[in-house]
Design a protein that fits this description.
With 122 residues, this protein is an all-beta fold. The protein is built from no helices and eleven strands. The mean pLDDT is 95.
Length: 122
């Protein structure tokens, strides 16, 4: 059974950094687009970063461009999200996802992790 497990969330002060990790199992996701979504209280879940499979095109939401970096290690069946210059508005549950569509196509992600909480204090 396919499984995506996130780790690395936590509490950080504004301006700080966190690195989220997502370990996949049960299926090789090397040929899938991998992405990170987030959902803040009272808001819809949104795609913040995605990376396609060859060419490794990337997508970033405008709100995180220049601050977040997505990367993947196909040998480890893993994807990462480096988050720098964090802001209180980045506070949300962050979800790892995988799909067979393009990196920017939020509707194409069909495999989901359980999420990890990121809280940024001001």
């Amino acid at each position: 059974q396919e499984q995506l497990v996130e780790s690395g969330g936590g509490l950080v002060q504004a301006g700080g950094s966190l690195r989220l990790s997502c370990a996949a199992s049960g299926r090789t996701f090397s040929s899938y687009s991998m992405g990170w979504f987030r959902q803040a209280p009272g808001k819809e879940r949104e795609l913040v970063a995605g990376m396609s499979w060859r060419p490794y095109n990337t997508y970033y939401a405008d709100a995180v461009k220049g601050r977040f970096t997505i990367s993947r290690d196909n040998a480890k069946n893993a994807v990462y999200l480096q988050m720098n210059s964090l802001k209180p508005e980045d506070t949300a549950v962050y979800y790892c996802a995988a799909g067979t569509g393009r990196a920017h196509d939020a509707s194409s992600y069909t495999y989901w992790g359980q999420g990890t909480q990121v809280t940024v204090s001001s």
